[in-house]
Amino acid sequence: MGSPVVDISWPSSIVDSFDQSFDIQIEEGNSSDTSDSLDNTKSSAFYHHNIPKPPPLPMKNSNRGLAKCCYVPKETKDIWEKLFRDGYGADVHIITDDGSIITAHHSVLSVASPVLENFLQQSKVKNRIRYIRIPGVPYDALYAFIRFLYSSCYEEEEMKKFVLHLLVLSHCYVVLSLKRVCEHILEDGWLTKENVIDILQLARSCDAPRLSLVCLRMVMKDFKSISTTEAWKVMKRANPSLEQELLESVVEADSRKQERQKKIEEKKVYLQLHDAMEALLHICRDGCRTIGPRDKVLKGSQVACGFQACKGLETLIRHFSGCKSRVPGGCVHCKRMWQLLELHSRMCNEPEYCKVPLCR
Question: Domain TAZ-type spans what residues (predicted)?
Answer without folding.
Answer: 264-360
